Amino acid sequence: MRRWLLAPMIGVGLAIGGVAAAETLRTDLSPDGLRGLMTGWGLPTHVTTLEDGTPVLDSESGGRSFSVLFYNCAEDAASAAEAPCRDIQFRAAFTRTEPPSLADINAWNRTMRFARAYLFAERYAYLEMDLRLDGGLSDATLAAAADTFVRLMAGFAAHLDG
């Protein structure tokens, strides 16, 4: 009896595994590559670099600006915008007339998942979310991560506004 029940479960597992195997998983991503994806998701983008050469993708959603920074990038690429990178970080800066308190930042971090907040120079609040591409991420997972960050930005802004 148990063998009879196990066989269909193995078949289902193989079918699900077959679907997942057909999906392309990205184990690295260049700024130009993510720019193409984000443009397809309706997010305007522009590629720049920080002073240290770190590639950055600037974007905005709902009137809020944010950046995507790229880490663990190949050094042999023709340009920083084309370099495949294994880690990305979504980051948004928030300024207010009245600087947020450390208690506000800590309350956010205590109750929210996926993105962390911190104070910079006791005046600016930052929200960050990291993604590692080890093992691979699908385009759908990347889109969901971008959507999560955009939603968290809106929530964090509302949290700061009290």
Strand order of the largest sheet: 1-2-3-4-6-5
Percent of residues in beta strands? 25-35%
Structural class: alpha+beta
- The CATH topology is what? Yope Regulator, Chain: A
Number of strands: 6
**CATH class wording:** Alpha Beta
Total helix count?
A: 4
The low-confidence runs, each spanning 5 or more residues with pLDDT under 50, are 1-20
Commentary on this structure:
The chain is α+β, with helices and mostly antiparallel strands and 162 residues long. It has one domain (25-161): Yope Regulator, Chain: A (2-Layer Sandwich), CATH 3.30.1460. The protein has four helices and six strands, in the order ααββββαββα. A six-stranded antiparallel beta sheet has the order 1-2-3-4-6-5. A hairpin with a 3-residue loop joins strand 5 and strand 6 (124-132). The longest helix is centred in the C-terminal third of the chain and has 23 residues, at 139-161. The chain is globular and about 45 Å long. Residues 1-20 have low confidence and may be disordered.
Question: How would you briefly describe this protein structure?
Answer:
The protein has one domain: Yope Regulator, Chain: A (2-Layer Sandwich), CATH 3.30.1460.70.
Describe this protein with a few key phrases.
162 residues, alpha+beta, Yope Regulator, Chain: A, six-stranded antiparallel sheet, disordered N terminus
